[in-house]
Write a structure and sequence with these properties.
The chain is of the alpha/beta class and about 500 residues long. It is about 30% helix and about 25% strand.
Length: about 500
């Protein structure tokens, strides 16, 4: 076997579970044998359209079997899969396609307009549409698969070769492509199996988008490696989730606090049979004690976690049986991952002392796509600098304190302040701007912007809000657009002139 990556995984499961369901989607049931054949056919179709080892294949669509088929088909021929966030605006899609150099784009019919406006002017040479008709410059995904031969192939792929490029929101105005290798995905799966207890026959319901690394890597990839079933929902609906858990006998569910809160508040919560559930995982932000207790009353505990795209993403996990005892903690390091907390000089600090979180292990990326400067800045002696602040308690449990990168997490989506601020500063009326995260009961956090107007500019608060929101709409994903825009006379600043966001936060929120 020359392909040591994830490409052969589905085919290698055939001896063990050929007739078992690999993917459940709507009314479809796709067995491992059927999935393996479709992957082989799609790999042939990609080859026929010029895709070679190292080439990039992009995907724009919500959760769908075609997402996973494209991932494994690309991996089978040594190509690199580039999943795109469907919530991005057209200029952001265009940037990712151009930056990655994708030569082929698979997109869903529901997103044809976004694919056209964001992808038609790029270097993409071939386009396949899922669940939609062929048109000028666009081929039918299903017709391409049907016409291709189901020829298994064994392209040489090493564990160090790139499997994915996942774009992270830019801290300096432009996203960076995190290059996740086949080895990163292997070791992340091992972490998940060891610390989350993912076992053979697992039935995971994925309600978070597969273009997020946690849903893809911790959920789909790890469960398929174990011969389990991946149940896909295109979008989150609390009632549909509860019904699916009961009907499909779901054993594993991953989400963010908001999704669990909406489930617990749904009228069908008390009457739904959720006895099949064995594990709940939660990331994005700390889960409230009331939710831990509400699910605990149904015999369920949460495994909290901390991670990021650059760590594929598993970094730490909090065992469910200690969730109440360690409220606010993101747990202990994953089995195959090392974590340390350091001071500004890179020296490890004592328990209880806040410092920057550094991560090292075989699940950690080695580089950003074509960003040597960003790569060099992110690593010190093999340790990845997370940019997050936290501390260990006396038992080695980590607590996240703050974010050096000013990242806001809203409903599980990462929002980097600099990216939004850069675009707001294009407005000639704005002297300065600061974006901060404001607590929100539903989404965990939402972005608020505060601006200082240029001297001589006279605008009402409503006019400023309309100006900023109008300028951002269509440029950025909706979740990145501030929910409130306030005006300040003058920002609190450091001696070097930097805006002091903690002071600003205290002033505007009364903290």
């Amino acid at each position: 076997m020359e392909n040591l990556g994830i490409g052969p995984w589905v085919a290698r499961k055939l001896a063990r579970c050929a007739g078992e369901t690999a993917i459940a989607y709507r009314d479809q049931r796709i067995t491992y044998a059927e999935l393996a054949e479709r992957i082989d056919r799609l790999a042939s179709a990609l080859n026929a359209r010029g895709v070679q080892p190292g080439d990039r294949v992009a995907y724009l669509g919500n959760n769908h079997p075609a997402f996973l088929e494209t991932l494994f088909a690309a991996a089978q021929i040594g190509a690199i899969f580039v999943p795109l966030n469907t919530r991005l605006a057209a200029p952001e899609i265009e940037f990712a396609l151009e930056d990655s150099g994708a030569s082929l784009l698979v997109f869903h019919e529901d997103l044809r307009d976004l694919a056209r406006s964001g992808g038609w002017s790029t270097g993409v040479q071939h386009r396949l549409v899922v669940e939609g008709p062929a048109s000028a410059g666009v081929e039918s995904y299903e017709e391409a698969i049907s016409a291709a031969a189901p020829e298994p192939r064994d392209t040489p792929v090493s564990l160090d070769d790139a499997a994915l490029i996942l774009y992270t929101s830019g801290t300096t105005g432009h996203p960076k492509g995190a290059v996740i290798s086949h080895g990163n995905l292997h070791w992340n799966s091992f972490n998940v199996m060891v610390d989350f207890g993912v076992t053979q026959g697992e039935r995971v319901l994925l309600i978070s988008p597969l273009f997020h690394v946690a849903s893809l890597s911790n959920g789909a990839i790890a469960v398929l490696l174990q011969g389990g079933t991946v149940v896909l929902h295109e979008k989150f609906d609390a009632g549909h989730v509860l019904e699916t858990i009961e009907r499909e006998r779901i054993t594993m569910l991953a989400g963010v606090p908001t999704t669990y809160q909406m489930m617990q508040e749904h009228p069908d919560w008390a009457s739904t049979d959720i006895s099949s559930l064995r594990r709940l995982t939660c990331g994005g932000s700390a889960i409230p004690e009331r939710l831990i207790r509400a699910f605990g009353e149904r015999g369920l505990g949460f495994t909290m976690g901390y991670g990021m795209t650059e760590t594929s993403p598993a970094t730490t996990a909090l065992p469910a049986h200690r969730a109440l005892e360690k409220i606010g903690s993101s747990g202990i390091r994953h089995f195959f991952t090392d974590v340390k907390i350091v001071d500004p000089d890179g020296q490890e600090v004592a328990p209880g002392v806040v410092g920057e979180i550094w991560v090292k292990g075989p699940n950690v990326i080695r580089e950003y796509w074509r960003r040597p400067e960003a790569t060099a800045a992110a690593f010190v002696d093999g340790w990845f600098r997370s940019g997050d602040l936290g501390y260990f308690d006396d038992e080695g449990f980590i607590f996240i304190s703050d974010r050096l990168k000013d990242m806001i997490i809203s409903g599980g989506e990462n929002i980097y302040s600099a990216e939004v601020e850069t675009i707001i500063m294009e407005l000639p009326e704005i002297e300065a701007v600061a974006l901060i995260g404001v607590p929100d009961e539903k989404w965990g956090e939402v972005p608020h912007a505060y601006v200082q107007l240029l001297q001589g500019v006279s605008l009402t608060a409503d006019e400023v809000s309309a100006l900023v929101v109008g300028h951002l709409t269509g440029r950025l994903a909706k979740y990145k657009i501030p929910k409130r825009v306030g005006v300040v006379e003058e920002f609190p600043r450091t001696a070097s002139g930097k805006i002091r966001k903690p002071v600003l936060r205290a002033q505007v929120l009364g903290e």
